[in-house]
Amino acid sequence: MANWLAGSHLTNPLAELLRNVHSGYVARIVASNAIEFSTRVVVIFAYIMSSVFLALYIMIDRDRLRGGLFSVVPRSHHIRLSRVMLNLETIVGAYIRGQVITSVLIAVFVFILLRACGVSSALAIALFAGVADVLPYIGAVFSVGAAAAAALSHGTTIMIVVLALMLAYKGFESRVIVPRIYGRALRLPSSVILFSLLAGGVLSGVTGALLALPVAAAVLMLIEELRVDLPGHQELAKDVEIKERDDRGEEEYERRAEGMPAKQAAAIAVEISADRHKEEKSLPTRADASGSDGNRD
Question: Is 97 part of a structural domain of the chain?
Fold first, then answer.
């Protein structure tokens, strides 16, 4: 390799550099990098397994843990606490569903694109792109790079076509698909979604961008559920109606949970909050139905 590089004046410095490299030094660098990489893999695997077992323990012992949480919170705030917990479960579930939908969409797109271009490893690249789509920013580089590298063996023209279509899809995904899916699931405006992803990536890197959307949805939900009056907010008739429903829910809870331990009282609070959540979800449907009936009349 050094002799071949020495044949040109442009690559002659590289030939000298290559001759001065010692095999032992290269081996030490490779070994240290391999040890560091394997350590990171072990740490990530340990975190994943810990999270899985922690989630299983929480699912198995959910009632007792919930009762312990309610026992340290004043009873006047139990209904509000149950609503916050219910909304957090909804946010996490909606985020996971949205991530699954976007991953499936890009996997299907990559598979169809590579199959149309005659790439034999289309299925493997498509699965890799779907998994990599979970990572904000970096996932786009991985998926686009893998698809372009797989198409390179079929010629430069095919590779350029695949690269252009993948970049076009990633732009369409970031500007249309992600705001539509996550905005509908997490009830976030498109501007909040884009700002949250940027802020999370700048502040905490990939982890921050990965958690930006559920955190933003949780913050907006807490502001709404805790009835925080923001500067410039004007109380409307809808706000008065919500406060009246809060008072009725708390009165019903005090009546039904009087004298009960925290574990049973927590179950009653969750039941009342779940019934109210279903009622609130059905209200817009009823209003739309009545409006459409009036239009038909």
Answer: no
